[in-house]
Amino acid sequence: MKNILVVGGAGYIGSHAARVLKDKGYFPVVYDNLSKGHKKAVRGFAFIKGDLGNKKKLKTVFKKYNIEAVMHFAAFTEVGESVAEPSKYYENNVCKVISLLDAAVESGVKYFVFSSSASVFGEPEKERIDETHPKNPINPYGRTKLMVERILKDYDTAYGLKSVSLRYFNACGAHPSGKIGESHGVESHLIPIIFQAALGKRESIKIFGSDYPTKDGTCIRDYVHVNDLADAHILAMEKMEKENKSECYNLGSGSGYSVKEILDSVKKITGLDFKIEYAPRRAGDPAALVADPAKAEKELNWTRKYDLEQIIKTVANWEKKRRY
Ligand code: UFG
Asked: Is the pLDDT of residue 196 over 80?
C-alpha cells in the first residue's frame, strides 16, 4: 500500500500526518478545501483543493492517484461552536463524511483511518479512559465523532470497508523542523494561547476554573504530541491492512497535567513570562480527561517520542519560525 489520500491534510494534525507518511515512504495526496488549512503547510506535496462533500471530485482523485487508503482529518473541532451552531457540525462532520465514504467504497478503497476524539466519552467515569469506557458525548462535536464511528461499523458490515477510529486526547506540539505547527484563525487551545500571551499577542492567559476537584483546582488533560499521533495513524493503518479488521484506539500519554502545571512548565522550559488571570469555568469542560493508552501500546507497538518538555520545546521552535 502506498498512495494515501489525506483529507484535511493542510490542517494541523493532517499536515503532520502527511509529512510522517512521506518520511516513511508512502505517497500522501493531500485533499483540502483550505477553509481552515494552510497551503504553506503542504508545500511540495501532491495537493488537490476540494471539498469533503464533493463526491464526484473525490472519485476522480481516487482514480487518478490509485488511492488505496484514506486518512480523514477534515472536521470542525470547536466544542463551544458546536453547541452554538450544531447544523454546521452535523453537516460537515457527519453528512459530508458519507460522501467521502461512498466515494471511497465506489472506488474500491478498502481502508479508512478516522480522526475521532476523547470527546466521544463525555464525563469520565474512571481516572484513565480505555476503549471500553461508556460513550456518552456531552456536546454536538463529540456526538458527530461518535456518529461517524458507528457509521463506519455499518460500512464494514455492509460494504467491507475496514476502518480504524483513533480517539485523540489533547493533540499539541509541532513538527521538530519548525516548518509546520498549530495555527488556527481563532485560537482556543491552551498551549498556543499561552504562547500568544508570552509573545505579546494577547494581554494575558485566563485559567478557566480553579475550583475543580483536582490536585490544584484546575482541569487535568492528557497532552500528546502531534507527531506521535501521526505515527499511530501509520501503525494502525498497517495493522488494519495486514489483519483486514476494523478497530478503535485511545491515543494519549496516560499522564495528566493540570492547567497550572502546563503554565509553570512553559515558564520554566522557555524562560518566557506572561500574565495569568483567573476566570470562571468554561462550559462543557470535564475536570479531568486522561487516556489509558495500553491497547494502542500493546496492539500497535505504539511508543511516544515526546514528553511534555519536548512538546513545549517544539512549540517554542515553531513559534520562532512560524510562517502561517
Ligand atoms: N484552558 C484555559 N484557558 C484557555 C484555554 C484553555 O484554562 O485560554 C483550559 C481548558 O479549560 C481545559 C484545558 O485548558 O481545561 C485544555 O483546553 P483546550 O481548549 O486546549 O483543549 P480541550 O481539552 O478543551 O479540547 C480538546 C480538543 C478538542 C476535544 C476535547 C475533548 O482540543 O478538540 O479535547 O476531547 F474535543
From this structure: yes
